[in-house]
Amino acid sequence: MRGRVSLTIGAAALVAFSMVLTAAANPAGRVVPAGAPTAVAANDNRTAAGTYVGDTLVLRLTLATVAWHFLGDSDPGLTVAAFAEEGKTPTIPAPLVRVHVGTPIHAVIRNTFDDTLIVRGLSDRNPAVDSLILLPRTSREVTFSRAKPGTYQYWATLAEWQRNVPLPLPAHKHGLMRPRFDSQLTGAFIVDPPGPIPKDRIFVLTETVDQAPPIRNDHRGMPGREFTAINGRSWPYTEHLHYTVGDTIHWRIINTTFQSHPMHLHGFYFRVDAAGSADPSVDSIYAPSQRRMVVTETMKFGGDTRALTWSPDRPGNWIFHCHLASHNAKLPQVDDPNEIEYPDSHDHGDPDRHATTGMNGLVLGISVDGKAKSARPWHAAKRLRLFVQSDSVAGDSARRWGYVLQRGAEPRRDSLESPGPLLLLTRGEPTSIEVINRTPEPTSVHWHGIELESYYDGFAGWSGSAGATEPAIRPGSSFEVHITPKRAGTFMYHTHFNDMRQQYGGLVGPLVVLEPGEQWDPAREVLVMISDGPHAIFRVNGSATPPVRVVRVGTTYRIRVADIAIYHQHVPVRLVRDSSVLTWRAVAKDGFTLPPEQATVRPSTTYVASGETADFEFTPDAAGELKLEVDRDGAFKFHVAVPFHVVAK
Predict the structure, then answer these.
(1) Which of 605, 520, 505 is closest to 564 using CA atoms?
(2) CA 525, 491, 260 angle in degrees (round to 5)?
């Protein structure tokens, strides 16, 4: 180490003293930004910052107050702080730092604000406890190197802003949660192994709010006015990615926000190769036997990172997005701070453009060119009719929606199922699902986790290809979906049209694909579908008080957990007897059968997020009472319990 001048978070006295100085300089407790807001550029993280002097990367960073137009230059912006390389335009996210392992880095940081700046991540140790502290209007320098390759972040906190934000203590102490003016002071820090720089893409998730505490919520229970972005832009202004069938695609994802995000890829599985966290600063590169195949991967708040790989085998348009509805829904009006409701967005005069006019947030659009492998002409071996219905009447406080499967005669128009009916398909069997819309609004259906043709994926106005995108299903019309499932497992289906209204209202359902010749055995299958809905009611299988399930000692049951709640970020599930947590064997994730190394017996406490499914096997060993607890707040204080009465053989 050369010229090390960074201070640790343990220097609490200095931090406190600097806060006092800042408060004294601003008696009202307000930060005084440096100058009027300037322009800021979206950073696609393709070009590394800094210049080399010999073998040392010299990085010169400064701060600026910027007008951030994350919904396009013509839309209103938010005033936030941003990093810039000296002499260059500020960027969101901050300039990319990318070096080979062991490369010396000499960082010079200039604080132009009337507030103390605390910078973390620009060191060789845990950035949550190792920081560089800059008093107002000062500069500091640090020289360091990184000994371990991986995906990391660096970030900065403005002391006065942090002091006035009520946050959990660890996050507050480490500056991992920066919800307002300093929310965009973060960037990617990539350390490569020796050799050529990998051909990968880096995507940094950022978020901000413009409310001062106490935070007011949207009527659905989620914080209003959360503005999210990927590499500095919100959908549909995020980067449009282009690939070809057969490409091997490598991504690095960094969650710098103050919330968890279940990131979901339409149409394909991706392999998780590495996972990291900012506290402590680690990046675990998985051995081949521990890599997992998923369609949804949860990234926790404040610095979780992932390295992932996937390869498209079908052409068409697809998306990668956060599965929390408020993070892909139409945003409240940016320039009206009193508007906290996420607006309904079901029409816009052209429902076939819903994908680009009715959504914002953490969404990436992907177009895959080329041809799929030749297949036999498609002929349906099985036909289903699925009705989209509503029994709401004038005066209802919230619209109720539901899917109804035709079983014999057509269902009554006011009948609903909550959640929707279990759809049973068979691997390799071509299945036609006719979706009939009996509601007064357009809709669509996404077949979550199913590998199918893009045109039937359910993202109206985007799925398909240029000139031939899937239409919205208008009131009184129908749409025939072609599905030939590629694998057996647990999946879901749900609306992907005005999700904050329709999915919240009940348009969700479970889908299970069986192996050829396999029959659904309701006596040995335990389906646990987690959802929410009007008045923020947390439900399992459509009920806040599920009925007792009778099971037998010595019989093995498959427990299929599917989470489709619109905002519960990381739902704990566990199987308990009295106060003891029982064990079960994991068998599948997102419908993908786990390899033997991962299909292990483990304590039953697990976490599922919106858009995830997980399958387990459990064999009761004694008569008595059990409970499958599904939490909604992370501490098993407010949970829905599925009771089990275990009887002898």
Answers:
(1) 505
(2) 115
In 355-442, which ranges are E strands? 363-369, 382-389, 402-405, 423-426, 431-437
**Could you tell me which of 49, 71, 72 has the C-alpha nearest to residue 60?**
49
Q: What is the pLDDT of residues 532-576, one digit of tens each?
A: 877 667 889 999 899 999 999 999 999 999 999 988 778 899 999
Per residue in 571-617, pLDDT tens? 899 999 998 999 999 999 999 999 999 999 999 999 999 999 999 99
Q: How far is CA 206 from CA 159, 166, 233, 496, in A?
A: 19, 19, 9, 23
Q: For residues 349 and 294, is the Cβ–Cβ distance under 8 A?
A: no
Q: Which two tokens stand for residue 446?
A: 């996404």
Please name the residue that has the structure tokens 């017996």. Answer: 601
Kind and range of the H or E element at 558?
A: strand 557-563
- Please classify residue 49 by burial: count the beta carbons closer than 10 Å to its beta carbon, then call 0-12 exposed, 13-18 middle and 19+ buried: buried
User: Distance between CA 413 and CA 404 in Å, rounded?
Assistant: 9
12 vs 20: CA distance, rounded Å: 12
CA proximity to 304, closest of 287, 320, 282, 273: 282
C-beta separation of 120 from 174 below 8 A:
yes
596 with 537: CB under 8 angstroms?
Answer: no
Distance (Å, whole) CA 153 – CA 278 = 7
Q: How far apart are CA 105 and CA 107, in angstroms?
A: 6
DSSP H helices in 450-513:
499-505
Other beta carbons within 10 angstroms of residue 521's beta carbon come to 10
- What six digits make up the tokens of 366? 């992907």
- Return the H-helix or E-strand segment holding 624: strand 624-631
Find, among 298, 320, 428, 427, the residue nearest to 368 by Cα.
320
Contact 111, 160 (CB under 8 A): no
Measured CA to CA in angstroms, residue 506 lies from 105, 450, 642 at distances of 53, 20, 20
Residue 191 contacts residue 148 (beta carbons within 8 Å): yes
Closest CA to 582 of 515, 640, 646: 646
Answer for the pair 381, 431: CB distance below 8 angstroms, yes or no: yes
